[in-house]
Amino acid sequence: MVNLEQDLRKIYLEQDGITLEQRQLLENLKKNNKIIMYTGGTFDLFHDGHLNLLKRARDMGDFLVVAVSTDELVASYKERPVVSYEGRCNILKGLRCVGLVVKQNQLFDVDQFNRLMADYFAIGDDWINNKEIPGLNWLRDNGKVIFFPYTKGLSTTEIKDRIVENVKRSEYEKIRKSGKYPT
What is the reported pLDDT for 176? Predict the structure, then answer.
């Protein structure tokens, strides 16, 4: 029995970054007919848009599982996050609306979604027309995805762009005031 429990602990930690106790919590929620919501994302430079999605997702069910993309996953399709994977996980773990934070190694990982016994996948409606990701297509085809309105004018990319623009403007002002223009 001890070896089986140790094996299960290792499997859950390797696959999803959860403990055996967290797995048992999910099983108990399902036994009690609770709705498990699931969402995934990078959650870099955490902002109101992220919080809106998480609160809406939690309000649709009884428990929210949040899959945080690893740095390696994010780097495979866009710029690496500013905040480390561990830092992003810690922020999410501190939110009341989040029941469990797990590791996401693949976008729209249907196997993980099913292993964690989720009922619905919540995502921003900026993904609604994306037909190129098999996992998202499976979720859509099986009525397992809920698209929430994207928070307009607020994204991590836009925040990064504003920071860069502000730095450029600040540097330009310093140069202008000094009168020492680069040659």
Answer: 63
> Is the per-residue pLDDT at 14 higher than 80?
no
Domain range for residue 38?
Answer: 34-152
User: Dihedral sign, CA of 141, 63, 27, 102?
Assistant: positive
Q: pTM for the complete prediction? A: 0.83
- Written as one string, the DSSP assignment of the chain is -HHHHHHHHHHHHHHHS--HHHHHHHHHHHHTTPPEEEEEE---S--HHHHHHHHHHHHTSSEEEEEEEPHHHHHTTSPPPSS-HHHHHHHHHT-TT--EEEEE-STT-HHHHHHTT-SEEEEEGGGTT----HHHHHHHHTT-EEEEPP-TT--HHHHHHHHHHHHHHHHHHHHHHHT----
For residues 138 and 183, give the distance between their C-alpha atoms in angstroms, rounded to a whole number. 57
| Same-domain check for residues 42 and 71 | yes
Q: How confident is the model at residue 112 (pLDDT cuts 50, 70, 90)?
A: very high
Q: Is the pLDDT of residue 160 over 80?
A: no
Q: Is residue 109 part of a domain?
A: yes
Residues 75 and 100 occupy one common structural domain? yes
The number of distinct structural domains making up the chain is 2
Whether residue 29 contacts residue 138, with contact meaning beta carbons closer than 8 Å, is answered with no
Q: Is residue 15 part of a domain?
A: no
